[in-house]
Amino acid sequence: MYRATRILFGRAGPLAALLALMLYATPSSVAAPPSNDNFADAAAVESLPFTNVVSVGEATTEPGEPGSQSRTVWYSFTPQTDLIAKVDLGGSDYVTAFLSIYRADSAGLAGLTPVASGWYGGPFTVKLQAGKTYYFQEGDAYPYGWVSTVGIHLQVVEPPPNDKFADAKAFTSVPFSDSPDLTAATIEPGEPMACGGSFSQSVWYSFTPTVSGGYGGDPGVSGVAVYTGTSLGDLSNVACSQWWGLAFHADAGKTYYLQEHGGGMRLDLLPAPNAGWSYSPGDPSSFDNVSFAHGNGYWDPTITDWAWDFGDGATSTGASSTALHRFAHDGDYNVKLTVTTVDQRTSSETKTVRVRTHDVAILSLAAPDKGKVGKPGSVTVGIGNTHYPESVQVDLYKITPSGATLIDMSIRAVGVIGPKKTVTFPFKYTFTSEDAEAGKVSFRAVATIQNARDAAGDDNVATSFPTLVTK
Questions:
Q1: How do residues 210-247 score in pLDDT, each as one tens digit?
Q2: Domains along the sequence of the chain with CATH
Q3: Distance of CA 313 to the CA centre of its chain
Q4: In degrees rounded to 5, what are phi and psi of residue 9?
Q5: 424 in Cβ contact with 366 (< 8 Å)
Q6: Which distant-in-sequence residues (6+ apart) come within 8 Å of 302 by Cβ?
Q7: In this predicted model, what pLDDT tens digit does every residue of 278-324 receive, in sequence order?
Q8: Which one-letter DSSP state was computed for residue 188?
């Protein structure tokens, strides 16, 4: 080439030499499209894993090609067995790189059925059928984008090592946790689905505790079933995870099989349940149906049985966290609650309940039959008390057609006295012209125990017969 250039330059001058250089140099400087630029020339993937990176600067998009992207390349793969594959755009140099996966259901571009697609990121997980040909289209997602190279990484996703019952992952100590990738997990023929479960993937664990007790996981544990047995054919269900988590009893030295089908595996020795409880009213009497309730502001969904011992010979058991009980006599009672969980954990709490019946009554209310304006009249209230010494307040009201008016108040100590006996609260009232205008007035007494709750307040109010009032 150098000699020809000299000859041209010598005979025809500089212009002819320049033309000769362009003639020889141009073909070697033009970049060609990638060899797998067109669908018909898709690069065949022979085995997995497969990795490739290609420049798409000179790639084209052929007529009829699916999508609106530019500068595409193609790969094809025909698996010999059913498999799950992960595909990513590893090696691509810009975020607008895209990947589309198709299944060839008939010849040519028109015979492609979309399987999956996405922009740079991934990976994309797809199920591939044996004997079917799949095409992988890569390029720039925009007609005039910035992608110059695109890469592809295609690999088989293998089932987890504990996919089969026979390969259950063994452990003996807790806490234990595992987060298996179930993408390629399978279901074996004859595999049980306890508690109404329906799933297509699972993994297995075997757990042989060194300590007997309740085992389980927090509310995040789901998709777990627990069995005993030695093979798929003789498994017996022990427990299943619920919406609140997992709890089951395990005996030391015995092997339990845990089937996990979504949600991850977490297992620990569960603590004793909280048996705290409360009661109302807080100052019960022998007149009250006392309400007992387990909880103290929390709730444990694993508790399934509540047993109350009220300390007076009475008990209450069952699946309710509340109970009602009336103590026949005053006294101090050691009330005990024992709670039991679904996995047989138990716990108890005992409290002393002081039963004290405070009760006074208005046994008499005496008022004059007649009254005269400006003249005082005597009103006497008789208080009965057969339980405990009390400090009693008596409020005296005047009742007229216009309403009730407090006219006096007295506080006295009232000791324990015999039935039908009373402690007298005397009052004086001077009748007014307003009473005379009304023509009559009644008196109402209200008795209140200070520093205690009256157990039977219905007899703490009394109203006298009307007193006729004149001027």
A1: 999 999 987 778 999 999 999 999 999 999 999 889 99
A2: 1-30 (no CATH), 39-156 (2.60.120.380), 165-269 (no CATH), 277-355 (2.60.40.10), 360-470 (2.60.40.10)
A3: 40
A4: -65, -40
A5: no
A6: 216, 244, 245, 247, 270, 273, 341, 342, 343, 345
A7: 999 999 999 999 999 998 767 889 999 999 999 999 999 999 999 99
A8: -
